[in-house]
Design goal:
By secondary structure, this protein is of the alpha+beta class. The protein is built from four helices and ten strands, in the order ββββββββββαααα. Strands 1-2-3 form a three-stranded antiparallel β-sheet, with no helix packed on it. A three-stranded antiparallel β-sheet has the order 5-4-10, with no helix packed on it. A two-stranded antiparallel sheet has the order 6-7. Strand 6 and strand 7 form a beta hairpin. The longest helix is centred in the C-terminal third of the chain and has 16 residues. It starts with a strand and ends with a helix.
Length: 148
């Protein structure tokens, strides 16, 4: 995992990790049981979602199965399978560490949001994110402005 750096606002330690969208997200360095972000097998940060079936350990989905290295009788690659509702066959017995975005814990985070950081703007952004989750949009859909 990435080395620790210091937040430029509050000077607390943070760890920058690349997301699936090739953007860097600052994480608090210590795992938290209430965290909404985990690090997948590829070292990238993944957000836990409620709408998509997703492995709690590696982040694979029904559309992006783990590459197991095995092949079926026809020589086609075989991906993982579901063992539990949120656990794939490649991750049985593996523990997951969840992290919290430093944007959620930094006392200076409003300064990084652009503008004055007023409570109304923050509430509007949270409402927009919740609506996109309800519609089943991915992070990429939300950030690119695509609506389903």
């Amino acid at each position: 995992m990435a080395d620790l750096e210091k937040c430029r606002s509050c000077h607390k330690p943070v760890r920058f990790v690349e997301t699936l969208n090739a953007k860097m997200v600052p994480l608090d360095p210590d795992p938290q049981p209430n965290g909404t972000i985990f690090i997948g097998n590829d070292g990238r940060a993944r957000y836990l979602t409620k709408k998509q079936r997703q492995c709690r350990a590696c982040g694979c989905t029904e559309l992006t199965a783990c590459r197991t290295g095995r092949q079926d009788l026809l020589g086609e690659p075989v991906g993982c399978s579901w063992i539990e509702l949120d656990l794939c066959s490649e991750c049985v017995g593996r523990s997951v560490q969840r992290y919290v975005s430093h944007f959620a814990t930094c006392p200076q985070s409003a300064a990084w949001r652009g503008g004055s950081g007023d409570a109304d703007r923050v509430a509007r952004v949270r409402a927009a994110v919740e609506k996109s989750i309800e519609r089943g949009e991915t992070d990429q859909d939300f950030h690119l402005g695509r609506r389903r």
